[in-house]
Amino acid sequence: MALLLQGPSPTAIQAGRVTVVAWPGQERFATAIAEMADHSAPFPSIGPLPDRPIRILLAPTREIYDSLTRGRLPLWSEGAAFPDAGTIVLLSDRPTVQPSNALRHELAHIALRSHVGRRAPLWFEEGYAAVAAQEWDRLDALQLNWQIARGVRMTLDDVDRALRGARADAQTAYALSATAVLLLQRWGGERGLEPLLSNLSRAGSFDAALRDTYHVTAGDFEERWQRDLGSRYGWLSWAGAMGFFWLAIGAILVALVGLRRRRDKAKRAALDARDAEESQMLDDVGINE
Question: Interior CA angle at 247 toward 244 and 250, to 5°?
Answer without folding.
Answer: 155
